Amino acid sequence: MSYQSGRMGMAEGIALVFVICFVTAFIGLPAEAIDTSGELGWFSVIIAGFSTMIMLFLLIYVFQRIPGDLFSVSKHLFGKPGAYVISAYYTVMFLALAALWIRQFAENTLLVALPSVNFQLAVGWYALGAAFIVYLGIENIARATYVILPFTVAGTLFVLGLLEPLYKPNYLSPWLGKGIGSALIKGGVLVGANAGSLLLAVLAESFQNVRTLKAAAVFGLGGSVLLKALSVLIFTMVFGASVAIEKTLPFFDMSRLIYLTRYVQRIESIFIILWVMVGVLAIAVSLYMGIYLITRLVNLPAMKPLIPTVTILIAQLSMIPPDIGTVFELQSILIRGYCNIGIYVIPLSLFAATLLKEKRGTKCASG
Amino acid sequence: MVNNAISKSYNFIKKLLLYHPPLNPSPFVLEETPEEKQVKSDQALNSLADSLRSLKALLRYAKRLSLFLTKVTTALREGQWSDRAEDLKAECQALEKQRAEFEPILFAYQSGRDETGERSLTTSLEENRRIIETLYHLPLNKDIIIREIDIAANPPVKAIAVFIDGMVDTKNLNLSVLQPLMLLGSGRRQLYDGDLVGHIIKKYLPSNQVQRANNFSQLQEGVNSGDTAIIFDGIAEAVLVNTKGWEHRSVEQPNTEPTVRGAQAGFTENLRTNTALIRTILRSSDLVTEMMKVGARSRTNVAILYLKSVANPQLVAEVKRRIQGIRTDYIDNSGSLMQFIEDQPGFLFPQSVSTERPDRVGAHLSEGRIALIVDGNPYIHVLPVSFFSFFHASEDFGLQTPVSNFMRVLRFLGTLISTVLPSLYIAISYFHVEAIPTQLLLSIAGSREEVPFPAWFEVLIMELSFELIREAGVRVPGMLGTTIGIVGAIVLGQAAVSARLVSPAVVVLIAITGLASFNIPEYRMASAIRLTRFILLLFSAVLGLVGLATALLWLTVILCSMKSFGMPYLVPVAPKTQAGFDVVIRGPVYRQENRPDALNSKDRKRQPHISRPWTKQQPVGKVEDEQ
What we know:
The structure holds two protein chains of two kinds. Chain A has a single domain, classed as Amino acid/polyamine transporter I (Up-down Bundle). Helices cover 74% and strands 0% of the residues of chain A. Chain A has 14 helices and no strands. Chain A has helices spanning 10-22, 29-37, 41-65, 70-113, 119-135, 138-162, 180-189, 199-202, 210-239, 241-244, 250-256, 272-297, 306-318, 324-366. In chain A, helix 1 (10-22) crosses helix 6, helix 4 (70-113) packs antiparallel against helix 12 and helix 4 crosses helix 13. Chain B has 20 helices and twelve strands. Chain B has helices spanning 5-17, 34-37, 43-77, 81-101, 104-112, 125-135, 170-182, 196-204, 216-224, 271-281, 313-324, 334-341, 358-367, 401-431, 438-448, 455-475, 478-498, 504-517, 523-561, 620-626, and strands at 144-151, 157-164, 210-213, 228-232, 238-241, 287-294, 300-307, 353-355, 370-374, 380-383, 563-564, 567-568. In chain B, a hairpin with a 5-residue loop joins strand 9 (370-374) and strand 10. The interface between A and B is medium-sized, with 37 and 31 residues.
């Protein structure tokens, strides 16, 4: 496998973007969204999605004008140093996301599935699970994601649907929350939860054409945002904002409440399969992105030899925070701060530089 | 030593106590052959052997020449020249031709190739016979027959017929080869004039397939395939007459793919019978059967079948390239052939559908796939295929759409159960007991109360026992196999429960899993699923549902990475292509308008959009009324 990532179509693009954006619904996002916007947390998720999509379309505009991937386009617009800075920035972002997710999923596993398992084993398992599929290449990860996607959506909707007896719509009353204005502003800050969608820019060259990128942005990001917003909405309706903030495992806690008959109850274990799969896939995709960017940065002929090294480093990195509380703090910093630069500042700079270049080009041509 | 009482007693005691190894002959030890020991071939010895061969050939020629001169002298002395002039002239011509072959360079080259069979035939019958004897290790080899014949002509033509006893149809050989050549000719035939071989083929060999061969390689190939080779004195060419007629199984019901509503004919070990069976299903002049030889020693016939106007030419060329690229000495099985040409032969899952049903091959060929037939094997391989093809049965299209869809869903469900049920049981009963309803949990706990083993061990021994019964059922011949299967399963299950080695719940679980695995129509896919089950069992025993989820994800990614002759294995799902309404469930036959998209066949359309134009026409009665 060279650093070239193969050819991918619309389905693959949608699946990759969906899984990397939706994974946050299984871990900290619902609590984070409710924490920032109260009962309108679900609305702030939509706002965040909408903002991300605008930024993605600005990036797609850039790729329409200058074909290539993020590295080559940055190089074209800002020169080699600029390209290095941008690629290094995104490398850190994807690898940090991978490390945080490894830690969170490992903690979740210890908490709800395998309490007696060694911590290092749990972390190592997720790292190994992701590394193995990274080894098989992004095309295959994307295809597998596409195969699992319907089950993910159906499983999530199934759980949300079965909670219907526990819905309390009055928990959503807007006067209980922090107001629409706050949700709009805070939603704009939550875009970091969709930072993974920037993979479209990193791998732009691997997708068939601009239409594929647009479809992946609309359906992949749009679909995941809608499902996330629905999850946050029902999460709020079931638990209420004040209790929901305290829940670190929203999906698990929701599925735990399901009681239809004495035969359909306590089905949370069954859904472990679902969130483990989505988790490993998301970790694998961000790990792949990080390694791919390193390969591009230092101009390596192949990325496979990097996989074990980077995976071990990331697994070690994920074990540094002393407790899950620190992990959430770090995630908050990453989502609300670091990723926002990647979502807003860099795409806007690339867009502005493209416009400027176009303008100059036109001037030169006319003058 | 002094032979006194003390020494005698000493010897007696020594003889009594001391161990004496038996005086048996030394046991047989398979040692390296001299060829293996001799790493470097001795060049000098080789050239000496070549010289010896040349000298021997010259000596034989000299003997023949001397014999001929004696004949001429006798004829002249006895005044029979005019009677025997024609005979002697013909013999003289043969000797002259043979002499021409003794040109120094040519002769040295040819004699060096004696044992490889690449040598051209010579004009000397004696020489040709000697080479055949060398090639076939005669007289050691008892089923190679060399029959000397004199073809009735003026002068009579000396010839030999070479064939393998048991591979030829004796009746055919006698009536259509030997009889016309030996008995039906007249003394006035002037065979030596012009093209002797062509003359004989056209006028005196009534066989339907006759070929000419001018080297020993071709001759061997023909004889080894059941042809009879006829070699004539004075002609550096042989005639290969089709006399194939070895014993083979007749067309019977398929053993491993029985159907309720489908055709009941299955392939046999005979390649030509198999190609004919396919042609009876697909009566198209567009159906091409290309033949190739594989195996340096076995020279196995491999037939490649495809529809010329449908199959992707790139695919055909690639399959041929891969087959031509095989370097091995022996192939007897279509499964072995596939391992030589598959994209990922080390993977668990098969990459071609193997079937013994001509109707199934016909259906696949009409979709643009390629079929491979290996001579001597009743399993025909169809390629390229997707994962979903393995769950389609030949009678699917013969049943009503809802019924066949129900069957298909059942098969996929069976596959799912067969793959994950034991591992799911282990994961839940070990790590996630809260997922089991209380009453069921109590029931399982009650049944496991007296079992001394952990659940994973219970499942493992039951799975292994089931596999043993299944394998024994396959290996034990005939009805006994079925009996052993049933008796083994019932007795072993009952006894294991009574002995409290396993719980009844596990017996039920394994029985359901086993039954489900038999729903998979393709044997190799069923085997792959069985092996996958064991792997998943291991993962779930270690990490419960987390392990199972990871293993299932890995499995999905691996399946996504697989290719069957360049076609993605999970197509049309991943990558997404136009499905054609025949993947998991199928649409009605009149809606199957396009061939599978992923095959990139030459002709995408299978039938027009409206394949039932009669639905747009007036019914018969109404037309008459209107008229």
